[in-house]
Amino acid sequence: MQDVMERYGLIISGEKVPTSDYFEIRDPGTGELVGECPVATKQDLDRAVASARDAFKSWSKSTDQERKDAVNRIADTIHANMEELAELLTREQGKPLNGLGSRFELHGAEAWARHTGTLELPVEVLQDDETGRVELHRKPLGVVGSITPWNFPILIAIWHIVPAIRAGNTVVIKPSPYTPLSTIRLVQMLNEVLPKGVLNVVAGRDDLGQMMTEHPDIQKIVFTGSCATGKKVMQAASSNLKRVTLELGGNDAGIVLPDANPKEIAERLFWGAFINNGQTCAALKRLYVPDNIYDEVCEALVDYAKNVQVGHGLAEDSVLGPIQNKMQYEKVVDLVEDAKRNGARVLCGGEPPSGPGFFYPVTIVADAKDGMRIVDEEQFGPVLPVIRYTDLEEAIERANSLDVGLGGSAWSSDPEKAKAVAARLECGTAWVNNHGAIKPFAPFGGVKGSGLGVEFGELGLKEYTSVQVVHQ
């Protein structure tokens, strides 16, 4: 296990690089110091990009098998160091070790890496006849800049790093200033099994992200984060026409149909909304329920919530932990208080406990309405507004009314009925009787304001390549 007081460094060309400035990372459940994060300067970033650019010269010429082997070594490294990384992740992010927490995240990172190692980028033959042969080749782009958020710092880092390396690119990654330490440690470990310069990590404050998006020697930016920041990334990337993949925020709607069984769907509804304490882009954040079963659905959710243990992430019996940071905690408190003032009913939770840490109880809010902030704004916390409807067509229209569209779901005792409603939701991924379940082979991305491009699977891998068509 790493020393709790460790001063972390950047990792450039496989070496730990100290900086002149650091800031503290504290446990969101206790306020205790976890470690100190280095603050990279523009010169540090230039050095990291130069290292990646130099490594690209040889890595881009590596064989397909060499790249697959490298990805498998990444998966093996995650597997071998799972407990150390899970504990560090819990201490800086807050999520529990168990349940859908840090160990779950690490297992997911390993699984995504292993699957990506099986993907192929074959030459596509577009024509082969007496008039000639035309082939489509996929070529690596160069240096990929990765900017990751604080909710799944290791899993999303792997989502960015692995396809980039598999396609023959090199990487400079910048983790969130809220949760940088687990990513730095991961990159340090991976540099033991990758060629020097293929994977580098820089850390610091938000201004470092803009330096990356404007850097002339970075050919692609992959960014996961808020819609507002995503727009800034896209604007800055235009300086040298960088490729961008943007997985941005959502405000996912779920629609329960009148024939649904409230008790049967309660558990899946709950975890669709409260996975990672609701701090998930594709979590269920607005639940539309018909009049005839409205009270029963609310009651079933509250009954399930009563048995969910909230506590410090290192406690083996904790199922949910604290909100990760003060800014997000205060936003959640503000949204719930605003809902109360505007006539919504808090069925459970709604009052932060005394004591240290950014703990907020699981909160179900009834009688929420479109137009309330708690419905129209992404909560990104342990709160679910339940909205009543009488007409299904109106519910679909209300679900589609916002300018975001990451995920959505429909719930019914008849899966075909639910599928027909899910298909009408304006979102990149639609679920039937489930919400938030993603797969490494299924492309994932948003529509409208929720992003640009997709991740995962063959389509996601192709986003890290350029097309060259060869005529002969």
Automatic annotation (TrEMBL):
InterPro entries named among the record's database cross-references: Ald_DH/histidinol_DH, Ald_DH_C, Ald_DH_CS_CYS, Ald_DH_CS_GLU, Ald_DH_N, Aldehyde_DH_dom, LUC3-like
Aldehyde dehydrogenase domain ranges (all copies): 21-470
UniProt name for this protein: Aldehyde dehydrogenase family protein
Residues that span the membrane, as ranges: none
Source organism, top-level taxon: Bacteria
Family affiliation: Belongs to the aldehyde dehydrogenase family.
Enzyme active site: E247
Record bears the keyword Transmembrane helix: no
